[in-house]
Amino acid sequence: MERRVEEQRGLFFEEFDEAVCYQHRPGRTITEADNVLFTTLSMNTQSLHLDAAWSAAQPFGERLVNSMLTLSTLVGLSVAQLTQGTIVANLGFEKIAFPSPMHHGDTLYADTIVTAKRHSRSRPGQGIVTLEHTGRNQKDEVVATAVRSTLVWCKGAQP
User: Which residue stretches of the chain have pLDDT < 70?
Assistant: First the structure.
């Protein structure tokens, strides 16, 4: 029997639907090792992420997950479902917020809604899609939000 091949990919411009809430699963549990590695790789020497003794005397009483790790993971959770192989470029981020902190051992879950889309005026065969990402922990508390503008391929235009 001859089988059709299905390659995992993100969505083309025409497939993004403003009436859908895309849930990105599985979630990602953030460990102490993840946090320390990300924090040191990114040269962020903030004691709140690295110094357990200092952080114990601060308002949260413990080290917190680096918010840039939270943001990176939030966006990363959406890639396979939305933009894998169909993105041309990220155009920008705005309205980034961290209403509650992530702690070591918390699991991040991501949802995305499309808030706008239009064909590019300067790049034929491509469109601009605005995505609103929301990250929640295992207690369903919102821990991060971000609006991301992306440039994606239209169907049939990708080289």
Answer: none
